[in-house]
Design goal:
Layout lengths: L5 E4 L6 H10 L4 E4 L15 H5 L4 E4 L10 H14 L5 E6 L3 H11 L5 E6 L5 H4 L3 H6 L1 E4 L11 H13 L7 E4 L7 H12 L4 E4 L2 H8 L5 H13 L11 H6 L6 H11 L5
Parallel strand pairs: 1-2, 1-3, 3-4, 4-5, 5-7, 6-8
Helix pairs in contact: 1-7, 3-4, 8-12
This protein binds NADP nicotinamide-adenine-dinucleotide phosphate (NAP).
């Protein structure tokens, strides 16, 4: 394998940090980038992109804030062009299930001419421990406009293993892996599993979208609030409730269950109030 590093866009993120750690454990050099790294990469500043893509062998790309936002597919098209221009052996793109914008971004990468693998993920387990739902778990209540539609939450460790397989084995080139956990749970059921694992009450409360927006506005920029509202409405309308088998297809083993995530995460102490 090339001595050049593998670029990890979103290198400190939920999946990027795991991909970087797995590669380094196999002595494969990485270049994790985001707005705060020595080689900076900012999705809102295209002038930062060429330097990040120079002198790397491949790339794992996670977009911010979400491929559903306007302009995401143009950005991915440009990243695909840079990857081809720099002779990258492949680009592995993290995508989201059931989002029209994300599918446009996937198409942009597929048409760029660079060898690609797409990892199309469901809602991450780690949103409850490393994302915007952590505060709710700590406070003992998660209030969301999520309804009773089941979601097959996926473990970010599984996503990272699939991404690393795609980066290290060319058999995965040209594949779209739709990755989910092995079981669909409602948000209420997921929160109940976390409560059981952590050994204290944490409850789920169903709220209206307007209530959710009013609660978020003092803490998050308007576009993030709008994005979350759109995701709850679009992604959680039942279209994504089916379990998919991308983890098994890519790795030859079943995906990790949510209860496994809840137990492991409770043991780290991150949910101690
Ligand atoms: N979370 C889910 O459930 C889920 C499900 C399916 C797909 N996805 C997709 O996964 C991707 C990652 O989502 P995530 O929310 O889980 O985030 P994440 O991977 O945890 O990423 C957070 C990182 O993004 C970096 N970042 C923030 N704004 C940036 C910008 N403008 N340019 C470059 N880097 C930036 C931050 O580092 P700095 O502060 O150093 O910049 C931070 O470390 C998104 O494309 C999302 O659509 C997420």
């Amino acid at each position: 394998m090339s001595e050049l590093p593998i670029l990890i866009v979103g290198g400190a993120g939920k999946t990027g940090a795991r991909v970087s750690a797995l590669l380094r454990a196999s002595s494969i050099p990485t270049r994790p980038v985001s707005r705060s790294t020595p080689v900076p990469f900012d999705w809102t500043r295209p002038e930062t992109w060429p330097a990040a893509f120079a002198g790397v062998s491949m790339a794992y790309v996670t977009y911010q804030p979400d491929l559903a936002v306007e302009g995401a597919s143009d950005a991915i098209a440009e990243v695909g062009r840079l990857a081809r221009e720099n002779g990258l052996a492949r680009v592995v793109l993290l995508s989201g299930r059931g989002e029209p914008g994300a599918q446009r971004a996937e198409a942009a990468l597929q048409q760029s001419g660079v060898p690609w693998t797409i990892v199309r993920a469901s809602w991450f387990d780690q949103n409850f421990s490393e994302g915007y739902l952590l505060d709710g778990v700590l406070a003992g209540e998660i209030a969301l406009p999520a309804g009773a539609v089941p979601e097959p939450f996926i473990d970010a460790d599984d996503i990272a293993e699939v991404a690393v397989a795609a980066l290290t084995d060319q058999r995965h080139v040209g594949k779209v892996y739709e990755v989910t956990g092995p079981r669909a749970l409602t948000f209420a059921q997921a929160v109940a599993e976390i409560a059981a694992a952590v050994g204290r009450p944490v409850r789920y409360r169903q709220i209206a979208p307007e209530q959710f927006a009013a609660g978020m506005r003092p803490h998050a920029p308007t576009e993030v609030v709008e994005l979350l509202l759109e995701l709850f409405a679009v992604v959680l309308d039942g279209r994504n409730s089916d379990v998919a088998h991308g983890v098994e297809q890519a790795l030859g083993r079943p995906a990790r269950d949510f209860s496994d995530y809840a137990r492991r995460t409770a043991a780290t102490g991150v949910w101690r109030a």
